Each structure stands twice: as structure tokens, then as C-alpha cells.
Amino acid sequence: MRQSKLFTKTRKEAPADEASLNAQLLIRAGYVHKEMAGVYAYLPLGLRMLEKIKAVVREEMNAIGGQELIMTSLQRKELWEKTDRWDDTKVDVWFKSSLKSGGDVGFGWSHEEPIGEMMKNYIASYKDLPMYVYQFQTKLRNELRAKSGVMRGKEFVMKDMYSFSVGEEDHTAFYNATIEAYKRVYERLGLGEDTFVTFASGGAFTQFSHEFQTVCAAGEDVIYINRENGIAINEEVLNEETLTKLGVTRDELTEVKTAEVGNIFNFGRQKAESLGLTFKNETGEETPVWMGSYGIGVTRLIGVIAEKFADEKGLVLPAVVAPFTVHLVLLNQQDGEVRDWAEGIYASLVKGSAEVLFDDRDQTAGHKFADSDLMGIPYRVVVSKRGKEEGMFEVVERHTGEVKKLTEEELYQKFCTTDVE
RNA sequence: CGGGGUGUAGCAUAGUGGUAGUGUACUCGGUUUGGGACCGAGUGGUCCGGGUUCGAUUCCCGGCUCCCCGACCA
Questions:
Q1: Nearest nucleotide (C1') to the CA of residue A364?
Q2: A322 close to A378: Cβ distance less than 8 angstroms
Q3: Alpha carbon A138 to chain centroid distance?
Q4: Dihedral of CA A241/A243/A246/A249: which sign?
Q5: Which of A140, A158, A159, A215 is positioned for an S-S bond with A194, CB 3.0–4.6 A?
Q6: For A106-140, how does the pLDDT look when each residue is reduced to its tens digit (9 = 90+)?
Q7: Nearest nucleotide (C1') to alpha carbon of A367
Q8: Protein CA at A233 to nucleotide C1' at B11, angstroms
Q9: pLDDT tens-digit profile of A56-100?
Q10: Is residue A298 a contact partner of residue A49, using CB atoms and an 8 Å limit?
Q11: The model's pTM
């Protein structure tokens, strides 16, 4: 993409109404636009980042048998009454409205109920199980207090997956497979080292649920970790009983601030029972489905990544999530020969399927470098008069600051995945 | 929802009971071109409602907004 056509612009200064680092950087770099408190639009750069994260999550969910779908934002009141969760005193984040034709609707803050209800159409027999479905959905939650930039919003994108199994054994196997899949997701996103499978309160069905907590100063949670044996416990369940059960002592654990980037729940048969979602088992008995739910906060991950992968100049994004891999920066653009040369390189990189943002704007070098640093694209390739004279390109790695000079051939080798010619 | 703060141009900020200033961004002209370059000329603004006052952006009341702390986060 040509940067001269990109409608977003960078800003030198952060908006006064953003205190969080993630929002400051994402807004300054033109990734997001704040619409209101806790509600952010994803602009071209931010959307590409969002899609990159989704692609990783999607791959891992598909790998464990997940089938992608997308549910609706508008939800029926009657459905939530079945599980006694329509009442505002039971669920305090509801956005609700009414239909002109009569009746109430809710805006989806979760999709457990609708998806369970829908599955009644498709699950009748043990032969239909197990079934795993997931979606990337915009959740709407009437939070009293949005905070921390994109990390806790009233509107956010979540990947939510639901498992439908015949019984506990099958469920547990999938639950464990999901833990492994989630670990791979965070690993691939560059958060593996700092993300912990954390014991947290389990709710009505089990003693513990598992949260995926990433060490992050802007996070809202406090957990206690032991890096050596990989144990992590949310402060909400940190007590003698938990410690004994997990075989650790309090002084082996370190307190850290974290952001919850994923969680998984075991619903047992209770959720399906309240919805009337049953199947006929092998002996013909009507049996409630054993359900589980598995979430990953996709837009929250953008915030966490922005917080963790940044320096004083701006974002320093891992290649897997960066909107582009290469920032092709043209200097001396007033020189026709240099410009033509850069145009040729750009065309070749695009042909070679490199993801490249071409800064072809009429700006000074300093301005372009500052923008490039702020946007955090992993590799900057400088095309300049100086470079043209020696027939080389300067390739700067954003992460390390390392500078290499490459020939045109080497450049294509490094960044192209398909033939340039 | 409790507490604290905030609101001036696209953005960041100053100031004042009497015609609102600066930086940046933007437009035009010129000079520049490896770290947000320079000179000149322009466009553009006091959150909303009420009150006090000859006069309110300023003071008072109410509302809203946004931020922060707490609560909440199935």
C-alpha cells in the first residue's frame, strides 16, 4: 500500500484524554480512532493488525476441530430468561432495546445462550457429538467504567468457542487440547514467555477455571506465579486450600500485574440442561450436552501487544501481528531516478507478495523515519540517492535497530514469498 | 455506582469579567531534503442549558463529556 494514499496520519502528541500507553500509541500511529469511552474504531493499520491476530487464532482453532461461524448481535430476551440472565441485577452489562413490532432485544455481551439454543437444531444424537464452534464477534457490554484504552471497552472483538460433548471425559480431552492451542496462539503472537495458564475461580460448575494471563503493567489482574514450574494463581483464589492442592507454598510465588487475554470454562451439563439442549445417548436416554466455553480477547490483545512491544519512539510490533512486514521508505523523492527506482522495487515486492507499505510521500527524511518508528513495522527498507549510488538498500530492523545493506536480489529473497518476475 | 479531576481550533496548550494567544496540522508562495527543516502569508476555536452582570470563555447552578481511584468484570 502507498502511504500517500493512506488516509490516516501520525500525530506527534498523544490526545489529552488518553492516559493509557496502548491507546496513546495506537492513536498516534493511526491504528485506531476513539469514538467514545471504551469504543474504538479500527483504521486500516489497526484492522490489518486485528486480522493478523485473528488469522493466528483461526488457524489454531481450526487445528483442534473448531468450525467458524458468526452469531447475531441482536438477542432474544426469552432465551436469556431461560437461564435467568436477562435481569439487569443478574447481568449488569446489558445493552437492551425494544423492537418496533413489540418485544425486547438485548445486544450480545456473550453468546453462550444463543449458540446453545441454536445447537438444538443440530444436535439430536450422540452421533452428532462432539461439536466445536467458534466465532469472532463484537461483544457489547455496558461497562460502568471503560478503562485502559482498548483493553477494557464497551465494544470489543472476542473469539469465543463453545464445545459440545457427550460427557466429562470427552470434554476434558478437548478442554486440555484447547489449553495447548491457546498456548500456541500466545506463543505465536510473541507473548508466550509472559503468558500463564492461571487457576481462577470456577463459578458454579467446577472448582477452577483457567485464565490466560499476560504479564502487563496496564492489566487489571494480579496473579501469583512461579516461572520455574509454570504455576500461576489468580489472587481471587489464592488461599491455603488452593496452595495445598497445587503443591506450592506462598513464598515460592511472585506477585505480578497481568491482563486476562483468554479464559476457558467448563459448564458441565448444567448450561445445556437449563437451555434444554439434549441428545439421545447410545441407550436412547435424553441427556444434556456437556458444554465448555473458550474465549480470547482479540482487541484486548492489540492493547497488550501495544503496551509490551513499544519503545520511546513508538510501536515495535512482532512480524506476525504487524500490519505490514516491510516499510519501504523513499528518500530524495524529488530525484526522478531515485523515485523511479523505488517505484520499481515497490512493484517487485508487491509482485513477490511481500506485505509492504511504501512511503512515497513528499516529506523530509526525519519526518518519514519518525513516522516509521512510530508505526512499528518490523523492517524498514530505505531507498535513497545514497543507496542508489552504491546499488544497495538499507534494511533496518525495528526491534533491534540493526542495520544491514542488501542488494536488490537479497531484498527479494528476504521478503518475497512468490516469484518477483 | 461512590470519590476526585477535566472540557478553549483537527491535535496539544496559554490566558482573560471587556474584539482569545501560541505550537502543530492544514492552504498558498519560496528555500530545503538521512531524524518530525526554514522563511513569509492565510483558514480555523471557548462542551450544552440556565443564572449573576451593561457585558460571561472566565463567576455561580445544573447537565453532559472524557480521564483517574474504588466497586464490578459470570
A1: B33
A2: yes
A3: 12
A4: negative
A5: A215
A6: 999 999 999 999 999 999 999 999 999 999 999 99
A7: B36
A8: 43
A9: 999 999 999 999 999 999 999 999 999 999 999 999 999 999 999
A10: no
A11: 0.96
How high is the pLDDT of residue A184? 98
> CA of A109 and C1' of B61: distance in angstroms?
38
Q: Name residue A262's beta-bridge partners.
A: A212, A296
Place of cell 446489558: A94
Segment A235-245, tens digit of pLDDT: 999 999 899 98
Residue nearest to nucleotide B35 (CA to C1'): A366
Chain B positions with an atom below 7 A of a protein C-beta are 1-2, 8, 10-13, 23-26, 32-37, 65-74
User: Scanning the structure block, which residue is given the C-alpha cell 444434556?
Assistant: A288
Which residues on neighbouring strands pair with residue A266, listed in sequence order? Answer: A292
d(CA A25, CA A11): 9
- How much is the pLDDT for A297? 97
